[in-house]
Specification:
The chain is α/β, with parallel strands linked by helices. 35% of the residues lie in helices and 17% in strands. The protein has a 5-stranded parallel β-sheet, sandwiched between helices.
């Protein structure tokens, strides 16, 4: 069944192969998909007890614009028409603002791998959104934390992201990220 409007969301730091799979599954079930980028700018970031590191600058190295470009590149490489989706900011920590970003009949497609994922499902439902589970429960095959760690130490990371994303991350400069400043302040090297 295809819903008129569907939505996926995530930090996409960076947009990786797992994100692409999640997005494509939701796109197949939606006539139009909203792709919400959480933590779109530092003013919307709030610490979360169920995921205590997600707000740290070193865990949010790419800007909203850079993540938007990554998603566009990955979906273009998959042959998905740009008129089938919209990439929007999604202030996940501010449920009172959600109605301003996408239509009220939008179905929220969610994967749950953690306490934070379960919390998001509860918040979406409490705010009146229909939630459809795509998959989850088992461990993630790819994680943004692993990719960021590989980027920091210069290990192989490119196979964990779509080709267009790898090209953009190289173009953006993988070494010019907030973890350098964080490492310098703590006395550790990036």
């Amino acid at each position: 069944m295809a819903f008129k409007y569907g939505m996926v969301h995530g930090r996409f730091q960076p947009f990786h192969n797992g994100h692409l799979e999640y997005t494509l599954k939701a796109l197949a079930r939606s006539r139009h998909l909203f792709i919400g980028i959480t933590n779109p700018d530092p003013s919307t970031v709030v610490p979360e007890s169920r995921d205590p590191h997600r707000h740290l600058p070193e865990n949010n190295p790419f800007t909203f614009y850079q993540r938007l470009m990554m998603i566009r590149a990955a979906l273009a490489d998959e042959g998905r028409a740009a008129d089938r989706f919209s990439i929007i900011p999604f202030p996940v920590h501010h449920p009172d603002r959600w109605r301003y970003y996408f239509p009220p009949q939008t179905v929220q497609f969610v994967r749950v791998f953690s306490e934070w994922g379960r919390e998001k499902v509860e918040r979406l439902r409490a705010a009146g959104w229909r939630v459809e589970m795509l998959d989850g429960g088992e461990e993630k095959a790819v994680s943004g934390a692993d990719i960021r760690a590989r980027l920091r130490c210069g290990a192989d990371w490119e196979g964990l992201v779509p080709a267009g994303v790898a090209r953009l991350v190289r173009e953006f400069g993988v070494r010019d990220r907030p973890w350098q400043a964080a490492g310098a302040q703590s006395g550790s090297s990036p």
